[in-house]
Amino acid sequence: MDPVIVVGAGPTGLWLAAELRLHGIPVTVLETREERDPHSKAVTVHPRTLEVLAMRGVAGRFLAAGMPIPTGHFGGLPQRLDFGVLDTAYPFTLFLPQADTERLLEEHARELGATVLRGHRVTGLEERADAVTVLVEGPGGPYRLRASYVAGCDGTRSTVRQAAGIAFSGTDPTVWGWLGDVVLDEPPAGPLSAAGEHGGVMVVPLPGGVHRFVGATADDLRPGHPGELTMKELRAKVVRVLGTDFGMRDPRWLSRFGNAARQAETYRRGRIVLAGDAAHMHFPAGGVGLNVGVQDAANLGWKLAATVRGTAPACLLDTYHAERHPVGAELLRHTMAQTALMTAISDDGRALRSLLSSLLAEVPELSRTLAERLAALDVRYPPSGPGPAHPLTGTRAPDLPFADGAGTLYELMHAGRHVLLDLTGDAELPELPHADPHRARLAAPEGAWAKVRAALVRPDGHVAWASDQAGAPPAHAWA
What is the pTM of this model? Predict the structure, then answer.
């Protein structure tokens, strides 16, 4: 069996490698950087990502390293979103620098047997009907690797995507945000967010006595790149909006980022697949980018593994694009909307921000809906196969608790296989080669689950099939 080559050792590539190893697929991860990036652009792990981690039994590692935050923001509006009302075992966002997230994900992937090679830069691909040859520049010089499939998880400038000839269309930048990790002599008492006629700034404490400033000011609303951010410029921007620089000094990282929004026209072409930032590029509003990438990998991993092993229907891998491309399109839509709100600094724009912030406070259901979307708890995939589908089909399955202390659904999913549930506790279950059967009643059935008697849950935690009567799923219920 030829291995799968994963290009890119960021969160998406590492989680995909781990998922493939659960199914015994040989995996090599190729990463250009010789060392893990010490800077952490992403610091937020959302509830659905924590659920994905819990399905493999590793959520505890991340919870121990991070800090739960019960609220989030949409477009930097003053009224925060309450994540505590969400129907999940993780009703919060987890503050965890990306460097720590990547370290934990790499440990998990290596424990499962993935090979991670740093300092190995992919320069091209040669695809044939039966395999892909990957051209690599390594520490010892150029070499070639044969792979059954290649997964491009190598960021917005993806070499894999370009080599595969996959278009990456969208919009060019019109706004430039900035980020500065600095030491403060007079730090604020806690996280701080402010917006006004000069722009908006958020300040959050990071580990190691560092504070992060993120924002955009009036002179950042332009298409051309403003050049490298300097400490002098950062200080001036912060003072303009907040009235003080809090005694900032000793910059650890200064960076800019634009609001270009692009998406790959297809997430799969032949033996090439794309995931994470290689498939979608957007302004980092709401801290969702890392999370959507890991969720891409969760959807792709089991499908790619079954395809490589030859145990899946021929069309299964095509459902990766069919299911995740719409999620990526929605990601671009709501991050673009948030960007518009974050940069609405005119009199009219500030009035809009004030109105929407008031509505979030006055209409709890609106706040909950936005929180569910940011958390990715609302993602629903279209049902496969003919005929009407149960209302739960394609939805995410929560961590259902079973009666009599029989554990929870996610505890059954650590091996990354389908789970066939008999919720009557005594029905005859068919033998499915790709599913593990489990008989148990729910401890506290609620909502649509109250009437369910049987269900097939996919390895990524979405419902492939459900029925209000005991029975067996149809043959098409793989996905």
Answer: 0.96
